[in-house]
Amino acid sequence: MLKKIIRTLFWIALIQVVLGISGCSEEKASSVAPQTAIALTDSSVTTSESSNTSKLATTQQLKEVPVLYYHSVMLEEGNEVRMPPDQFEAQMAYLQEKGYESVTLDQLYHAFYKGGVLPQKPIVITFDDGYEDNYATAFPIVKKYGFTAAVFMVSSYIGGEGFMSWPQLRELLANGWEIEGHTVNHPYLSQVDKTIVLNELMNSKETLEKGLGKAVGFFAYPYGDLNADVAQAVKQTGYLMAFTTDRGWADLNLDEWHLQRVYCFANMGLNEFARRLQEPNY
């Protein structure tokens, strides 16, 4: 009888020991799991913060962007706004070789004022007035080097001798170019009545939007001529951003209506072209 009692007590003790070990294991497992989850969460937050920091750094580095501006691409001795095609192509080749990527005015606007991100070496290529050689000569060269561009088009010039037609403008648009505002008749805006200024801005914008079937949000001042009233009229008309002919890179520290550009002209030479891409306040 005594042996049976001892044997029963032995098995009870053994079962308690086994159950105690199992309980400890489960307790350790439950205490480890939350620590693992916290570690994963911390890692995720760190990655997110790193990504955000990277984007902020990119934005800070691109407070200034070179916006090139041309007029015509053709050979005409003694006329500096007529860029010889071989010189123009040499400049496009230089941009490609140095790793520049063309961006649109819309991308520039969103990067400057809406928190968007640009590539590491952005460039904007623009043409003023809408010469036919922009389509016939510049377009194939720009496309060859993998770039796009924008044309600030004088609306009354469309279809006129030496200027682009609606079908040509639409083809550029279909190939990633932008067609933007440059008034109806290319006047000195600071020298005409305010009513004329508004008509020049509004009628040009409406004509382009109707003919192209898209919004026109960007503007270049004819001759670079403006004053406070003109800039305010451009803003009231619904343009998002406007460009002068003032020398320098487009600068985030300036407001949307006074952005600078880099003038490109005949016989400037590749060294001068390169210098203007290296010095924001050339």
Keywords:
eight-stranded parallel β-sheet; disordered N terminus; single chain; 282 residues; alpha/beta
Please, could you describe this protein's structure?
With 282 residues, the chain is α/β, with parallel strands linked by helices. Helices cover 50% and strands 15% of the residues. The strands form two sheets. Strands 2, 3, 4, 5, 6, 7, 8 and 10 form an eight-stranded parallel β-sheet that branches. It has a two-stranded antiparallel sheet with strand order 1-9. Strand 7, helix 7 (228-237) and strand 8 form a beta-alpha-beta unit. It is globular, with a radius of gyration of 32 Å. Residues 1-61 have low confidence and may be disordered.
What is this structure's SSE topology?
Elements: H1 2-61, E1 64-65, E2 67-70, H2 85-97, E3 101-102, H3 105-113, E4 122-129, H4 132-144, E5 150-153, H5 166-174, E6 178-181, H6 194-212, E7 218-220, H7 228-237, E8 241-247, E9 250-251, E10 259-263, H8 270-278
Parallel strand pairs: 2-4, 2-10, 3-4, 4-5, 5-6, 7-8, 8-10
Antiparallel strand pairs: 1-9
Helix pairs in contact: 2-4, 6-7
Count of alpha/pi helices: 8
Give the mean pLDDT.
Answer: 84
Shape: globular
Strand portion, in percent?
Answer: 5-15%
What composes the largest sheet? 8 strands, parallel
Number of strands: 10
Summarize the amount of helix as a percent range: 40-55%
**Backbone CA Rg:** 32 Å
Structural class: alpha/beta
List segments where confidence is low: pLDDT < 50 over at least 5 consecutive residues.
1-61
Euclidean distance between termini CA atoms? 109 Å
- List the helices and strands in order: HEEHEHEHEHEHEHEEEH
